[in-house]
Amino acid sequence: MTERAHLAVVGAGPAGLAGALAAAERGVRVTLVDAAEQAGGQFYRQPARPLGARRPKALHHQWHTWERLRDGLERHVSSGRITHLTDHHVWSVQRAPGPSFAVHALLGPAQEEGVTVRADAVLLATGGYERVLPFPGWTLPGVVTAGGAQAMLKGGLVLPGRTVVVAGTGPLLLPVATGLAAAGARVAALVESAGPAALLRHAPALAAQPAKLAEGAWYAGRLARHKVRVLTGHTVLEAHGTDRLEAVSVAALRRDGRIRPGSAHRVPCDTLAVGHGMLAHTDLAGTLGCTLAGTEGTAVRADDEQRTDVPGVWAAGETTGIGGAALALAEGHIAGRSIAARLDGRAPDPRSWAAAARSRSRLRRFFTALDAAYGPPAGWAERLTGDTVVCRCEEVTAGTVRTAADALGAGDLRTVKLLTRAGMGWCQGRMCAPAVAGLTGCPLTADRRPFARPVPLGVLAGLPDA
Amino acid sequence: MNPLELARARPGEAFTVLFDDRPVPALPGQTVAAALWAAGVTAWRSTRGAGRPRGVFCGIGVCFDCLVSVNGRPNRRACLVPVQPGDVIRTQEGTGRDDD
């Protein structure tokens, strides 16, 4: 074999792109494997090409960064250094002797046929997805995740409805509310459960990032321009409607997490875009045997070079802990440089990525503070009525989940699942795990999922021997 | 303002698909979910247990709430599947299979 060492990058969002570009620029042959039709990930999700968007920039922030990534990718694809496999849904990465790796993907959108990419090293840049904590009515059509509303807008140029309430907690709510308003939705309210006091407590750490403060001020200006009512220290108590959303009840939270008496009021809307922060996709890393770390044991542990503890496997971006696109870029860049050196049999010189490392430390400190300021709304679990569906796939209620823990003594998510089916359905617990953990007091641990997505039996049967 | 105007889109020619026997316009490049949203439809599945309506929730292929039957095949994620001219889209009842 005279071929240059070969890197497989899973995920074409900011982290994966930065890693692929940094490695390719240093001579590594890269295969970029991604589920979407176009690169960008969730953050830089592009409108589908046939929609002919001549100003996709209007849907995005930090467009120049995207242009740099996109142009770099095009350059390396035309030179043959990077192979970009679109519509490839990776369901497992396997270690093979060599050492080498087999990256197994399903070809979309049908996802009935499999394909395997062999590589000497793997960069996991699988990103994250949104955490939504349940409340009565959250399964009604018209209730969508905040990120989902944004993804449908960016990719399909559609709105979920005419009158939207954006609610939950976290920095994502700002671009979602301003984005929907700019696209013509009436945003009736932005309901953020963190109060001004919580944000002030972490002010020093937050103020250490002037660029982020400026971003916050910019969003505040946009919200004012679109006349969006901003309610901090408030929460959505319930979504109302029979077969689709008609209104939400909103109330003020006291500092102890209780509802301020008399503060509940109804806001008519046909859409609720709701989210309570993000979770990392860790399935591929878990199956490979990478140690998962983070505050809740739900992110991939990586060292200063972005290496996991499995030789030959690197990780960058949200999968190593939620921190946004700028942090993902820094981590991806470092990973790509480390991979290029290590595949060449050299130890890399960390001084060569000192700027990226500084930005990585700064952004991690910032997001730790942000995380502390934007906790889930206190008291949400106590307010959940017994008949509220918690596991959306298997339609398991809060009452059933509570019984599993209180009466039957389940002490971990797996036992709750075996007793109640909560987490056993199509989504494999990705949606309900944080809620089940919060309701039962069980620790939120990343579930081991040997298949990161449903795989047809025929594809498994057709796999070559490793 | 609407999203197409905001992004100054010049989409390809619109076509028609059937949703529960009713014609619905769609644009090339849109997913099944996007076309249904644009037509004001937000639910296209009823759950196996309580028979409750569902549609898009996560919008990025993770939650499987938006499962729908397309051209006789059940359990397609509407938020991922691109809509094609002539598609026959049906509300998915339960598992979407006869053995339900």
Automatic annotation (TrEMBL), chain A:
<dbReference type="Pfam" id="PF07992">
    <property type="entry name" value="Pyr_redox_2"/>
</dbReference>
<dbReference type="InterPro" id="IPR017224">
    <property type="entry name" value="Opine_Oxase_asu/HCN_bsu"/>
</dbReference>
<dbReference type="InterPro" id="IPR036188">
    <property type="entry name" value="FAD/NAD-bd_sf"/>
</dbReference>
<dbReference type="InterPro" id="IPR007419">
    <property type="entry name" value="BFD-like_2Fe2S-bd_dom"/>
</dbReference>
<keyword id="KW-0560">Oxidoreductase</keyword>
<dbReference type="InterPro" id="IPR051691">
    <property type="entry name" value="Metab_Enz_Cyan_OpOx_G3PDH"/>
</dbReference>
<dbReference type="InterPro" id="IPR041854">
    <property type="entry name" value="BFD-like_2Fe2S-bd_dom_sf"/>
</dbReference>
<feature type="domain" description="FAD/NAD(P)-binding">
    <location>
        <begin position="6"/>
        <end position="331"/>
    </location>
</feature>
<feature type="domain" description="BFD-like [2Fe-2S]-binding">
    <location>
        <begin position="389"/>
        <end position="437"/>
    </location>
</feature>
<dbReference type="InterPro" id="IPR023753">
    <property type="entry name" value="FAD/NAD-binding_dom"/>
</dbReference>
<dbReference type="GO" id="GO:0016491">
    <property type="term" value="F:oxidoreductase activity"/>
</dbReference>
<protein>
    <submittedName>
        <fullName>Oxidase</fullName>
    </submittedName>
</protein>
<dbReference type="Pfam" id="PF04324">
    <property type="entry name" value="Fer2_BFD"/>
</dbReference>
TrEMBL record, chain B:
<dbReference type="GO" id="GO:0051536">
    <property type="term" value="F:iron-sulfur cluster binding"/>
</dbReference>
<dbReference type="Pfam" id="PF13510">
    <property type="entry name" value="Fer2_4"/>
</dbReference>
<dbReference type="InterPro" id="IPR036010">
    <property type="entry name" value="2Fe-2S_ferredoxin-like_sf"/>
</dbReference>
<keyword id="KW-0560">Oxidoreductase</keyword>
<dbReference type="InterPro" id="IPR042204">
    <property type="entry name" value="2Fe-2S-bd_N"/>
</dbReference>
<protein>
    <submittedName>
        <fullName>Proline dehydrogenase</fullName>
    </submittedName>
</protein>
<dbReference type="GO" id="GO:0016491">
    <property type="term" value="F:oxidoreductase activity"/>
</dbReference>
